[in-house]
Predict the 3D structure of the following.
Amino acid sequence: MLMRRWYLGALLVLSSLLTGSAAVAQEAAAATEAAKPAAESGTNLTAMLWLMGGLTALIIFVLLMLFALLWQMRPLLRKVYEIETIRESWYGRALGLFLGDTVGLTGKYKEDVMAGHDYDGITEYDNDLPPWWKYGFYVTIVFGIAYFVHYHVSETGQLSDAEYQHEMAEAAMLAAKLGANDDPNKPTDYKALTAAADIEAGKAVFAQNCAACHGQAGEGKVGPNLTDEYWLHGGEVNKVYKTVKYGVTTKGMVAWKGKLSSKQMLQVSSYILSIQGTNPANAKAPQGEKEAASGKPVAKL
Ligand code: HEC
């Protein structure tokens, strides 16, 4: 009866872990659908972590089942253990540990010894404690002392309250830092990068993240043509950078902040400026206002 409840508990834990991972995977799929392929790396990671957690739980479950099976087989195993040649082999000793015989550690097979008392016909074997239990107990003593010293004597460890205060302070610092750098209306004063390495890096970022909407050559698909002189949001490098960083989310342009580093965003912006005037095939019709390469609007003819 006890055994059966034990299996049920393990099954319950396992199934909740698996449904949890399925839910997260679904969420991940929905998220990637919405912001393709922006959030992919982040959500893929969570899905993978859940999958790994699920697999670990499965392995633990199988091991526990095996252990339960062995545990049920103890009477049979004990009979096997009583065969002398088996008892003296290394695997016999390992079996002995499982059955609660210290022979594996002491090197000596302990015969059954009576405790030497008899109360109303009730007698008792003077058996050793099962080694796994005894040594586990010693470990808890060592752990207990180390814990006490770490947290209460040397105070090298933070108690939960101090840990909480520390984390709150850190979060406040981080928020302040982010806030300062994160005002969309604060102009940046970057210069377009021109080094071949940066343009190459920008090209790679573009091919991986932007080509789906803007075309492999920047000719435009869902998103506008990025090779012509017409801009919806400005063609000066800091304006392009701003569009890339904060996106135009209501119009389907992803905000890349947090998905690409500042350097990558500047590299891809510079790459876009480097493909100005390349006239790719299947170019999308111009959108927005015409601007000269400097980013200043061109006087209408
Ligand atoms: C999910 C589709 C999609 C992806 C992916 C995407 N864009 Fe866009 N992008 C758009 C759309 C749609 C617009 C037009 C927004 C508007 O109408 O205001 C746009 C506009 C832009 C503009 C402004 C163009 C102008 O005329 O002012 C730039 C610059 C730009 N994207 C760069 C990028 C870069 C760089 C990447 C990759 C890091 C990228 N985009 C990825 C859809 C996308």
